[in-house]
């Protein structure tokens, strides 16, 4: 039986559950369960309110190993379709495994090379669009519907690394607001998507309350964290409805730092807080032997390999990132002040310099030493 930590593939990027396993917080098990069952929730939403989504075809490890008729049927179904192969553990000590992109046949060849035989995994095959036009992540709470939308694939928003800069948006149930001046295309797509989670029918609301414990804001919009992509032909496709991740951003004001301009060392708030200390610019987290408790971590963008440094840091500053990327979610869970999108910060500061920062306003000040 394979040790899942030894699985290597350029396309098996860490999921939010991988982050949460490593930070070991009390809510980890709840978050892992929520993520593991997301396609079940999406199916229920589709059944009740006809929410467009990417359905998961389900298999067992035995289906893959024995090459059953069930597998052969799904192979025929996905013969010429790109897909994601997703292995979800029933045991939280195991790691979720994903192989994204490419045809199912190639993903299966990859699977067989890994020698995975653990029956505690269930397998999901999800269709994937290789040329997604738009992707968005948004949160619905009592004050607004707010989030980020970007041209291209959802991985940009998840990883915090973008080919195109995301547009921040909010809808306070009366008016729309955007961080970009020319936003007609984004607004059109978002209105189509958000209309899908507006529920006027009392019977449907009661069904969602009973089956998913859903709650509603302004008595019509489903509360929670959502992800969707916009396919060229089929339009909006929801890929996540999460009731736990939305709680991480309770009371967060997305416009606090975005509206402030005019400072050289300024970015966007990913998590509020004030800190002061020596900065350490880290290019390779595996070689950061001199990083001390209380240092301020500065880098282009954090990934899961930076987690030991994040835990030791008093704050985080990055050149890239976005408000709802996985790294930003983790900074909030660990309560680390975090400023993202600070242009050329790794070149403007020097190792050992002392700075103070107010993450709420995205402000960084160089101190005299």
List the keywords.
27% helix; 27% strand; 7-stranded mixed β-sheet; 19 strands; 369 residues; 12 helices
Structure overview:
By secondary structure, the chain is of the alpha+beta class. The chain has helices spanning 16-23, 28-36, 38-49, 61-66, 69-77, 104-114, 155-159, 184-195, 202-212, 307-312, 326-333, 345-348; strands spanning 57-60, 82-89, 97-103, 121-127, 134-140, 145-151, 167-171, 176-178, 216-217, 221-222, 224-231, 235-242, 268-271, 274-281, 296-299, 315-318, 338-340, 354-358, 363-366. The strands form four sheets. It has a seven-stranded mixed sheet, covered by helices on one side. It has a six-stranded antiparallel sheet with strand order 8-7-6-5-11-12. The protein has a four-stranded antiparallel sheet with strand order 1-4-2-3. Helix 3 runs antiparallel to helix 9 (202-212).
Give me a quick take on this structure.
The chain is of the alpha+beta class and 369 residues long. The protein contains twelve helices and 19 strands.
Could you report the average pLDDT, rounded to the nearest whole number? Answer: 90
The percent of residues in helical segments reads 25-40%
Number of strands: 19
Rg, alpha carbons: 21 Å
Quaternary assembly = single chain
Distance between the termini: 55 Å
The count of helical stretches stands at 12
What's the shape? globular
């Amino acid at each position: 039986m394979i040790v899942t930590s030894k699985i290597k593939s350029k396309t098996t990027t860490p999921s939010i559950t991988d982050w949460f396993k490593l930070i070991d917080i009390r809510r980890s098990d709840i978050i892992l369960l929520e993520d593991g069952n997301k396609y079940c929730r999406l199916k229920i939403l589709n059944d009740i309110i006809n929410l467009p989504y990417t359905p998961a075809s389900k298999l067992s490890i035995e289906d893959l190993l024995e090459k059953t008729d069930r597998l052969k049927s799904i192979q025929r179904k996905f013969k010429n379709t790109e897909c994601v192969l997703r292995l979800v553990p029933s045991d939280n000590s195991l790691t979720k495994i994903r192989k994204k992109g490419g045809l199912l046949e190639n993903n299966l060849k990859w699977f067989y090379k890994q020698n995975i035989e653990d029956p505690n995994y269930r397998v999901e095959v999800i269709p994937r669009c290789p040329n997604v036009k738009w992707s968005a992540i948004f949160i619905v709470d009592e004050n607004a519907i707010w989030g980020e939308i970007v041209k291209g694939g959802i991985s940009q928003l998840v990883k915090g690394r973008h080919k195109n800069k995301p547009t921040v948006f909010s809808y306070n149930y009366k008016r729309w607001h955007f961080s970009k001046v020319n936003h007609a295309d984004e607004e059109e797509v978002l209105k189509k998507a958000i209309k899908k989670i507006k529920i006027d029918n009392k019977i449907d609301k009661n069904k969602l309350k009973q089956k998913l414990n859903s709650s509603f804001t302004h008595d019509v919009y489903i509360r929670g964290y959502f992800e969707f992509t916009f396919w060229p032909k089929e339009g909006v496709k929801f890929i996540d409805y999460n009731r736990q991740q939305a709680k991480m951003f309770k009371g967060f004001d997305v416009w606090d730092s975005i509206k402030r301009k005019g400072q050289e060392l300024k970015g966007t708030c990913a998590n509020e807080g004030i800190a002061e200390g020596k900065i350490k610019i880290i290019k390779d987290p595996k070689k950061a032997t001199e990083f001390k408790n209380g240092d301020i971590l500065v880098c282009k963008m954090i990934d899961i390999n930076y987690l030991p440094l994040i835990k030791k840091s008093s704050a985080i500053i990055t050149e890239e990132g976005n408000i709802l990327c996985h790294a930003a979610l983790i900074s909030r869970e660990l309560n680390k002040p975090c400023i993202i999108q600070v242009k050329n910060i790794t070149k403007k500061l020097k190792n050992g310099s002392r700075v103070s920062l107010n993450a709420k306003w995205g402000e960084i000040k160089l101190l005299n030493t």
